[in-house]
Amino acid sequence: MPTGTRDDERMSQDDLPKIGAPATRALASIGVTQLDEVADRSESELLALHGFGQRALRILQEALALRGQTMHP
């Protein structure tokens, strides 16, 4: 079966960008596993997570901006 099916492409668009293992684990600890779910959170909420910092925040903000989304204030 060929790889790279449409389902794979759709799933990869929803996945979190590469932000590092500690930040990814921090998001998973609050149930955030997809980029759309990040838009439901605030910057201060994410920065309060252990292992999540400014670099991860910037990467996620840029990824959301590419989709025309922002985080909650």
Structure keywords:
73 residues; DNA polymerase, domain 1; 55% helix
Task: Give a short summary of the structure.
The chain has 73 residues and is an all-alpha fold. It has helices at 6-14, 21-29, 35-38, 43-47, 54-66. It has a single domain (6-66), classed as Orthogonal Bundle (DNA polymerase, domain 1).
Describe this structure in words.
- It is built from 5 helices and no strands.
- The protein is an all-alpha fold and 73 residues long.
- The chain is globular and about 25 Å long.
Weakly predicted, low-confidence segments: 1-11
Instruction: Kindly name the structural category.
Output: mainly alpha
Evaluate the radius of gyration.
13 Å
CATH architecture group name: Orthogonal Bundle
The helix content is 40-55%
Number of domains: 1
What's the CATH C level? Mainly Alpha
Largest sheet: none
Give the helices and strands as they follow along the chain: HHHHH
Termini separation: 45 Å
State the total count of DSSP E strands: 0
What would the average pLDDT be, to the nearest integer?
A: 86
Percent of residues in β-strands:
under 5%
Task: Note the overall shape.
Answer: globular
How many separate helices? 5
CATH topology: DNA polymerase, domain 1
